[in-house]
Description:
By secondary structure, this protein is an alpha+beta fold.
Amino acid sequence: MKNFVCLFVCLFVGTANASLITNGDFETGDFTGWNTSQAGGSSLFVAANPGDPNLGSSPTNDSYAFAGNQRGPSQNIFWQSFVVPTALTALTFSFDYAYENFASAGFLNPNPDTLSHTGVSNQQFRVEILNATALFDTVNPTDIIFSAIQTAPGSLDPQPWTSFSQNIFSAVSPFQGQNLQVRFAQADNQGSFDIGFDNVSLSATTTAVPEPATLALLALGVAGIGFSRKKKTA
């Protein structure tokens, strides 16, 4: 009897997977699903295969988000809101990215930190998960739930196409059922700085809990089996 109940429960309680990002591969050819902010002298667009002449093709040889070709200092930010599922057991954040920094001074991170492209020397690229109420250009540590990438003096340059993938469950678990934001941001005023990213994914694994009606049917079934067994032994 115990073995049967365990088997029956296992049939109804399992795992489910869901992707939380819209148009993470940019195969729409545009920024559908994304918010964008562009300031200064750069270009911001979806680059189709074979891609930008400096960055080349993405690992999947298809379209990707691009910012660069600067004609002066610029700031480029891409962000999207998502809901953290309840009953979460894992959340894998992954994306492909590349960049090339043409500034002779290399990467620069101002102190205090900012994403401004005016008033202070700045040359950086960063990828983060932000809380729901954070402004798109915030650098306030209290707004940043998880930091995936932030260039700094000495960072690899140029960065050929590579992949990032990490389970960020511990960072986002307190926010189950709430909105968060994924953000890709670049600021430059020391020279041209091209960035590209593609295949952005937040893959959630959740425990699939049965609906109340299903649980009721399960209870009736178990009760019926128990009554039948009791009748046979009477």
